[in-house]
Automatic annotation (TrEMBL), chains A, B:
It comes from Thiomicrospira cyclica (strain DSM 14477 / JCM 11371 / ALM1) (Thioalkalimicrobium cyclicum). Homodimer. Probably interacts with PlsY. This is Phosphate acyltransferase. It is found in: Cytoplasm. SUPFAM superfamilies: Isocitrate/Isopropylmalate dehydrogenase-like (SSF53659). The gene is plsX. InterPro entries: FA_synthesis, Phospholipid_synth_PlsX-like. The lineage of its organism: Bacteria, Pseudomonadati, Pseudomonadota, Gammaproteobacteria, Thiotrichales.
């Protein structure tokens, strides 16, 4: 089976400089991959000139004349950029010429356009942004990370269910433990919507384990964490911020003087092994769950290594047909709910 | 001037084991300090027996027969624990026998009891929990960290003002730059209450610089960040969680085999210097801003070094008379507001 993925080649802070080498690396790693580079054709061809080992039979260029700016309003991008690399890449998925789209472009525009072009799955209120994050054990899948501000209880429960299906699909050997992000003060514990989501989740067959707090995210004691997009974004960005600060101070400690620099040289292999463990680039590639097709958002500032990881995430989700799995599971739950309501009547 | 601080000696996960040595260290560091250890008198005396260098003229014991449990409901603690070490310590502050209270006990109970015993400053809607956090530059003061879930726009603006007064009081050489925590997507930027808070802050004389995102917390580009207690708690705990995970993987990298362990031994002084820079114990001690007196909350799991830092925070805030400064500044702003409204009429 060939997996065809449309790449928004112009998206992200660095565009082709990142997307072209990442795409070629992915093609050379996975023989089952066919990539469609969407964007400014002459520029793409120019960028390919300097590259080696191009598997031309598994690489297509699809012309698109516009680019969505990183700070463009989603509504404007949707209205005015109908021939953007982002839009055309999504159109290819809609037309079944590709099974997934990967973009490092404007998150809001990508979500708005993806919802418009590909549509939300039946029964799903709102798609959510989900990513794997490192923990001291296995990765945890967290959603929503910014698509929905002020999601209601039902949406939160749906996020949890979609996350659980994703985790189960990618790791068939586990029964994913699912938590809701909350804070610890007993009497004021969280917003009403979180309490409602908890009630709803207790009625589903998913393995809901209860509330988790911010510091639980990285402990590896749950496999899925559902939250409102505002809260998830705050948690994710705060974590990124503190990780950058720690890495700054670690580097500074070794750069202080000649002696510490020499120690740093000796410690380099150990520090390298450590960095590989917590390298956020290994986790680049967030899934837009709840859409009818696979859409993967790369960090806008991703380098080629990180963008390649987003392509890998897209490939895996296509291989496992994640959107269909979510559709089937949600339909099953909704069906059970209807049946139990009918029985109660 | 002698600074008298009431210590909830029984509070926290470890109680006297932490509070006694921390108190004695603080007394031996600051000659202007007088501490009142509040709690089970025989147990306190017993704990003091094993200690050396006790400045008995600056140490008092105040008996209290009860202890608030770490998971006790705040309302129940308030109702049933009128002779708890926490309550008696706050009573001492109310009676002007102490100028501040430091507790590592149950956060919700401490806030509820402090509000009841000491009262909120005139004009302040709700007190907020504020702590200094490390950045790659100077520390940033962040509030609220969990006292208020669903704070409205006016409360958020008050948090920003209180934080600004605190930063200005403790660092008279700076004009604190104040930001509101938000997320980055333009069209859905944050909750309405954050937009309202921004409008309100633009009308005040404080140096409001705009929205900041989670990853900005640790960049040091603002001195004060105001947010809802839910969001602040998520940001703080997520940051703690990722910092612990990073430290776990760093240790693991050096413990992998004999060679890496030897490298670790050589790198130990560098790693120690690095750890000191990001050690959260240096930032232990959160202020309850908006009360009529100083109340400092230590992390429940604080060790003696961290708890001593909370005592230092209390001492500094008493020295600078933070509650009066906040009271005066809020009164001045409210006054200006009334005057400008009168002029408009």
């Amino acid at each position: 089976m060939t997996i065809r993925i449309a790449i928004d080649a112009m998206g992200g802070d660095k565009g082709l400089e990142v997307t072209i080498p990442a795409s070629l690396n992915a093609l050379n790693t996975f023989a089952d991959l066919h990539l469609i580079l969407v964007g400014d054709e002459p520029k793409i061809k120019q960028a390919l000139l300097s590259q080696q080992a191009i598997p031309r039979d598994r690489l297509t260029i699809q012309s698109a004349s516009q680019v969505v700016d990183m700070d463009e309003l989603p509504s404007q991008a949707l209205r005015n950029k109908k021939d953007s690399s982002m839009r055309v890449a999504l159109d290819l998925v809609k037309q079944d010429q590709a099974q997934a789209c990967v973009s490092a472009g404007n998150t809001g525009a990508l979500m708005a356009t993806a919802k418009f072009v590909l549509k939300t799955l039946p029964g799903i209120h709102r798609p959510a942004i989900c990513t794997a994050l490192p923990t001291i054990k296995k990765p945890v899948y967290m959603l929503d990370l910014g698509a929905n501000v002020g999601a209601d209880g039902e949406s939160l429960a749906q996020f949890a269910i979609m996350g659980s299906v994703l985790a189960k699909t990618l790791h068939p050997d586990i029964t994913p433990r699912v938590g809701l992000l909350n804070i610890g003060e007993e009497e004021m514990k969280g917003h009403d919507r979180i309490k409602l989501a908890q009630q709803l989740l207790r009625q589903t067959p998913i393995y809901y384990v209860g509330y988790v707090e911010g510091d639980d995210i990285f402990k590896g004691n749950v496999d899925v964490i559902a939250c409102d997009g505002f809260d998830g974004n705050i948690a994710l960005k705060s974590s990124e911020g503190v990780a950058k600060m720690i890495s700054y101070y670690l580097k500074q400690a070794f750069m202080r003087n000649l002696v510490t620099k020499l120690i740093g040289l000796m410690a380099a292999p150990v520090l390298k092994a450590f960095k590989a463990k917590v390298d956020p680039r290994n986790y680049n590639g967030a899934s837009f769950l709840g859409l009818r097709k696979c859409v993967i958002k790369s960090h806008g500032g991703a380098d080629s290594f990180a963008f390649e990881n987003a392509i890998k995430v897209a490939r895996i989700e296509v291989l496992h047909d994640v959107p269909s799995r979510i559709r089937d599971e949600v339909a099953r739950l909704l069906d059970e709910q209807t049946q139990s309501q009918t029985l109660e009547d």
